[in-house]
């Protein structure tokens, strides 16, 4: 889904659909609200009269509202009022299916979560997806207080057919291949509610640019690296999610960083995922502490990160070892894509002060300084799971996507 970059668009002229100018204005309001009409005109280059006509249409449609009064200009005149998106106009349901836990949320147009549910993962896909569908139906009833439900965005793991919602390959879910997620959900939910699907790492990238802070403003080429039970990457090129020929672009978690390393779930050896995913970091910590079997079940990545931030040597060493392998894994991303920014997501980034230096030092041994130094590398700004927020953005973005022209 394209996200219009405010620094790189051309205003549509009279020969192009009026809707494109409306989309441009709507995006400006979303990103800069509250904003006066004059500010919208300055940001878009559209004439103030055009802006006024568009805002009046939005007000009639209930897409926006105006409130507050700003200071008048030195030249005098009417004091400006500020334009906001109307959060009650449209809502979205996001579903983030993960290998341990699935999250479901109802969100308003601004991305504020109104309801959040968690259900444990199930190894029987038919039974599990029936449960997910029932939870979605519950959220659709909660959505009745909004003027419109935009749809349901579903984040999936592995190689995903984004048209049908089929997981063609998703070892981490434990379901086997060619699981028709979309078909099962549609059979329970019906055809009236639109369903949208994509890979979780790509949706994490979308969520970051849609709901993250302004540190990505103006960037067109971005890679999001999601560290969880596995490692996925979402690639944004020229402001658009990049899927590749068979929706397989961005599988950098399966780039080999050490051919003598352990076997990966993909069948290869020494992938980045077997050295830097959360379970590996936890296992590295447990081995160093010689934890008993009874205590192992209570240790997760959050526990290791908390211990590392407290200065426990074994936890610090485990996190730093992960950082070094992560740095090796960033090298093919920088050489292969040369992005302006790389965003690292996952619970382990809470230990960013311990990760950053070792990660960059390791990466610098494989990447030219001329390419590494200009690349911005920082942790995700999202506090809720980025792939969930991306699933929500996938739905809400339908309101902000320019129509196709021929």
A few lines on this structure:
The chain has 14 helices and 16 strands.
Describe the structure.
It is a single chain. Helix content is 39%, strand content 20%. It has 406 residues and is of the alpha/beta class. The protein folds into three domains: 18-85, Arc Repressor Mutant, subunit A (Orthogonal Bundle), CATH 1.10.10.10; 90-204 and 388-399, 2-Layer Sandwich (Nucleotidyltransferase, domain 5), CATH 3.30.420; 216-380, 2-Layer Sandwich (Nucleotidyltransferase, domain 5), CATH 3.30.420.40. Helix 6 crosses helix 14. The two termini are 19 Å apart. Mean pLDDT is 87; it is low at 1-17.
Largest sheet: 5 strands, mixed
| CATH class designation of the largest domain | Alpha Beta
Count the beta strands.
Answer: 16
Report how far the terminal alpha carbons are from each other.
Answer: 19 Å
Structural class: alpha/beta
Q: What is the CA-atom radius of gyration, in angstroms? A: 23 Å
In one word, what is the shape? globular
Overall residue-averaged pLDDT value = 87
Strand order of the largest sheet: 6-5-4-7-11
Assembly type: single chain
CATH topology of the largest domain: Nucleotidyltransferase, domain 5
Instruction: Please name the CATH architecture of the largest domain.
Output: 2-Layer Sandwich
Structure annotation, total helices? 14
| Helix content, binned percent | 25-40%
Order of helices and strands: HEHHEEEEEHEEEEHEHEEEHHHHHEHHEH
Beta-strand level of the residues, as a percent range? 15-25%
Number of domains: 3
Catalogue the unreliable spans.
1-17
């Amino acid at each position: 889904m394209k996200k219009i970059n405010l620094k790189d668009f051309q205003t549509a002229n009279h020969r192009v659909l009026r809707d494109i100018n409306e989309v441009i204005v709507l995006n400006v309001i979303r990103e800069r609200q509250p904003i006066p009409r004059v500010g919208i005109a300055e940001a878009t280059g559209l004439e103030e009269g055009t802006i006024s006509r568009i805002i009046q249409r939005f007000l009639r449609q209930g897409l926006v509202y105006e409130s507050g009064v700003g200071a008048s200009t030195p030249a005098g005149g009417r004091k400006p009022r500020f334009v906001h998106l109307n959060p009650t106009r449209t809502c979205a349901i996001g579903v983030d299916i993960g290998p341990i836990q699935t999250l479901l949320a109802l969100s308003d147009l601004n991305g504020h979560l109104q309801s959040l549910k968690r259900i444990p993962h199930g190894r029987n896909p038919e039974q599990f997806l029936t449960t997910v569908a029932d939870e979605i139906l519950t959220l659709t009833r909660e959505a009745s207080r909004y003027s419109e439900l935009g749809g349901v965005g579903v984040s999936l793991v592995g190689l995903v057919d984004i048209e049908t919602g089929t997981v063609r390959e998703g070892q981490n879910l434990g379901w086997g291949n060619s699981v028709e997620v979309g078909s099962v959900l549609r059979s329970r939910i019906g055809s009236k509610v639109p369903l949208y699907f994509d890979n979780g790492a790509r949706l994490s990238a979308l969520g970051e640019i849609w709901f993250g802070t302004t540190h990505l403003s103006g960037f067109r080429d971005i890679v999001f690296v999601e560290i969880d039970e596995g490692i996925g990457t979402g690639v944004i090129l020229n402001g658009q999610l990049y899927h590749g020929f068979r929706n397989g672009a961005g599988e950098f978690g399966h780039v080999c960083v050490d051919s003598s390393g352990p076997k990966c779930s993909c069948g290869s050896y020494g992938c980045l995922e077997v050295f830097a995913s959360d379970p590996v970091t936890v296992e590295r910590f447990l081995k160093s502490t010689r934890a008993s079997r009874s205590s192992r079940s209570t240790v997760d990545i959050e526990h290791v990160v908390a211990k590392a931030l407290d200065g426990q040597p074994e936890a610090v060493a485990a996190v730093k070892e992960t950082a070094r392998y992560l740095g090796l894994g960033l090298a093919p991303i920088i050489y292969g894509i040369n992005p302006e920014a790389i965003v690292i997501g996952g619970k382990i980034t809470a230990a960013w002060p311990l990760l950053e230096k070792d990660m960059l030092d390791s990466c610098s041994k494989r990447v030219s300084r001329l390419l590494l130094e200009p690349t911005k590398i920082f942790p995700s700004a999202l506090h809720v799971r980025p792939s969930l927020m991306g699933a929500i953005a996938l739905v809400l973005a339908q309101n902000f996507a320019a129509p196709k022209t021929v």
